[in-house]
């Protein structure tokens, strides 16, 4: 907690926003003792700023500085009180609904939705007419009108946390609902609570000033809203007495600005991916290659990667994660890319479709695909190129499918984006693709959550094959699956590859799996391709020490001194993957 606070203070946005807000709080707390009585008629009306009245006088002769300073107290007090109450009520209702679910959720969600459809202003007017005037009325009115949005946000967060293992573990351990909510859920929502509180305070200050300006507050009190109300009533605009409303207006804008800065700082602190990444060089793709002969693709190769280097721009400067990699993939070949975690496999795979994040740049080299220089494609050409010529199967079957669209719709989106025809023809193609990967065609109307992990990954493969690409990049497609499902899936991939003739770049850290599946394997170490060879040769005659180290970490792969190897994974996988894999295309590195 102290560490979070320290990091928050180090953030420029938080420092500026916090200092501004603290300044206003200080003025609101002690300022009223140092200024004149804001209600007393001290001088001539409509007097511009002078040494007697630094901010001038109002249309009735009161001191504008005193009104601005004293007005801060009630405005901010109500703002923070409403901010806290709206957050509290919203969190209570939302978390209870999301965590308990069923009937409680139905009832609370219905209530929340009713509040959401009632327009805030009429609700505030009606409530205001029945409640005794004063700050209390404003707090009740704004809390009543504002809690529902917050409840929706907290409910969504509770629903997502409820499914997490640590909550299931607390339930199994017999913890009470109250304890689970306060000990398991709430601490995990700390950043949401903090940013909601700041956002709600911003809402409260704005809404309060708005209502009071319309005369719906207590016009006898001194707040920033009533200052503006009286400025309007005293014709400050008509008489061009700008000093009556400008100081209050500036204060409201500055408080809003400081709260916005704080809210954004909290978001960035709790979610580092929101921080603006350091900028990649403006020429994100550089085409230089060392030698002219490297300019050309290898004859007969489907893909030629030439001296490719990729850098991420980090706070500490550029970090090269792919370093001068050159490789070729032949039509119909399965090329395996192996290497330990963080060696740059996924970065290299994403670069083939130019799917790198904005903080990454291809700083050197070329990607030549079937006569196309991928590194030089315009955004429009790239859109047409991706998926129709090179597609991808992503690692996480869980998150690669859109949870709110049926499978048919997801196929239709992909086909329509590449000039597909009617929805009916997309659905027909989707059924065909589903049966091709061994799923029932009727699943076209299913939602992703109705499928198992293995089924989802098959859908991912079907989607990747929808436009009959010539190369499919598979980035750890089986990592999250158990060995049986993994085996079935890979068998299917090999069958489809034999039938349709596409090539595969298969990325994984599971070297035994690759040696069984791939025609050739490349070993990536810290961004460098240290060895490329046929799977057969790598198994028995690996040359690079890093390859040998990787192989030796799997004792069943022939290490003579390995303790009684368990059933040979390689043998199992090879026998599963019929027909036998083709020999390597020669002549490439
Ligand atoms: N957005 C990013 N900003 C900065 N560095 C990054 C970013 N994404 C990845 N990296 C770094 O790039 C390197 C390569 O990451 P990459 O994901 O390509 O490795 P990998 O071999 O696919 O790993 P794994 O097998 O664990 O998926 C890692 O050191 C990682 O920390």
Structure, described:
This protein has 589 residues and is an alpha/beta fold. The protein contains 23 helices and ten strands. A six-stranded mixed sheet has the order 6-7-8-3-9-10, sandwiched between helices. Strand 9 and strand 10 form a beta hairpin. Helix 7 runs antiparallel to helix 8 (177-188) and helix 9 runs parallel beside helix 10 (224-233). The protein is elongated. The chain starts with a helix and ends in a 13-residue tail after the last helix. The structure holds adenosine-5'-triphosphate. Adenosine-5'-triphosphate binds at residues 312, 314, 319, 321, 339, 341-347, 357, 359, 509.
Can you identify the CATH class of the domain at 26-274? Mainly Alpha
Largest β-sheet summary: 6 strands, mixed
Structural class: alpha/beta
Which regions have little confidence, pLDDT < 50, spanning 5+ residues? Answer: 282-287, 557-589
User: Which cofactors or ions or other ligands sit in this model?
Assistant: adenosine-5'-triphosphate
Protein name: Dipeptide/oligopeptide/nickel ABC transporter permease/ATP-binding protein
GO molecular function, one term: ATP binding
Organism: Myxococcus llanfairpwllgwyngyllgogerychwyrndrobwllllantysiliogogogochensis
Subcellular location: Cell inner membrane; Cell membrane
């Amino acid at each position: 907690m102290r560490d979070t606070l320290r990091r928050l203070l180090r953030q420029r946005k938080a420092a500026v926003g916090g200092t501004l807000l603290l300044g206003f709080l200080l003025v609101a707390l002690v300022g009223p003792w140092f200024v004149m009585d804001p209600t007393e008629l001290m001088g001539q009306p409509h007097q511009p700023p002078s040494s007697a009245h630094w901010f001038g006088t109002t249309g009735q002769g009161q001191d504008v500085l005193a009104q601005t300073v004293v007005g801060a107290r009630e405005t901010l007090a109500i703002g923070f009180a409403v901010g806290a109450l709206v957050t509290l009520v919203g969190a209570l209702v939302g978390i209870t609904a999301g965590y308990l679910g069923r009937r409680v959720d139905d009832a609370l969600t219905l209530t929340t939705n009713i509040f959401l459809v009632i327009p805030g202003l009429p609700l505030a007017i009606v409530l205001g007419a029945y409640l005794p005037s004063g700050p209390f009325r404003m707090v009740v009115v704004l809390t009543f009108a504002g809690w529902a949005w917050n409840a929706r946000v907290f409910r969504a967060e509770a629903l997502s946390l409820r499914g997490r293992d640590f909550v299931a573990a607390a339930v199994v351990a017999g913890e009470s609902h109250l304890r689970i909510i306060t000990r398991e859920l709430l601490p995990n929502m700390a950043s949401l609570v903090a940013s909601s509180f700041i956002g709600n305070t911003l809402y409260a200050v704005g809404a309060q000033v708005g209502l009071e300006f319309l005369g719906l507050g207590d016009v006898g009190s001194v707040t920033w809203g009533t200052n503006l109300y009286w400025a309007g009533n005293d014709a400050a605009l008509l008489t061009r007495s700008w000093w009556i409303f400008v100081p209050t207006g500036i204060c409201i804008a500055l408080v809003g600005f400081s709260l916005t800065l704080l809210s954004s700082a909290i978001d960035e602190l709790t979610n580092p991916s929101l921080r603006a990444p350091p900028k990649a060089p403006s020429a994100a793709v550089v085409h230089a290659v060392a030698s002219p002969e490297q300019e050309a693709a290898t004859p007969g190769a489907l893909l030629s990667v030439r001296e490719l280097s990729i850098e991420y721009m980090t706070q500490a400067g550029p970090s090269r994660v792919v370093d001068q990699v050159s490789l070729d993939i032949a039509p119909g070949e399965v090329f395996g890319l192996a290497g330990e975690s963080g060696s740059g496999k996924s970065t290299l795979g994403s670069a083939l479709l130019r799917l790198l994040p904005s903080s990454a740049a291809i700083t050197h080299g070329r990607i030549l695909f079937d006569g196309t220089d991928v590194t030089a494609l315009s955004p429009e050409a790239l859109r047409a190129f991706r998926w129709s010529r090179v597609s991808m199967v992503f690692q996480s079957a869980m998150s690669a499918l859109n949870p709110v669209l049926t499978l048919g719709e997801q196929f239709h989106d992909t086909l329509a984006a590449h000039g597909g025809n009617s929805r009916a023809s997309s659905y027909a193609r989707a059924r065909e693709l589903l049966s091709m990967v061994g799923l029932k065609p009727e699943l076209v109307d299913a939602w992703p959550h109705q499928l198992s992990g293995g089924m989802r990954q098959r859908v991912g493969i079907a989607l990747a094959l929808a436009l009959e690409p010539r190369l499919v990049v598979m980035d750890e497609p089986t990592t999250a699956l158990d060995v049986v499902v993994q085996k079935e899936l890979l068998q299917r991939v090999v069958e489809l590859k034999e039938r349709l003739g596409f090539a595969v770049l298969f990325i994984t850290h599971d070297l035994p799996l690759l040696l069984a599946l791939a025609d050739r394997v490349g070993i990536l170490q810290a961004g460098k391709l240290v060895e490329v060879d046929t799977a057969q040769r790598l198994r028995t005659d690996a040359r690079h020490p890093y390859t040998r180290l990787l192989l030796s970490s799997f004792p069943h792969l022939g290490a003579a001194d390995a303790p009684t190897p368990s059933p040979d994974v390689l043998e199992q996988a090879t026998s599963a993957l019929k027909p036998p894999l083709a020999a390597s295309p020669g002549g490439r590195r």
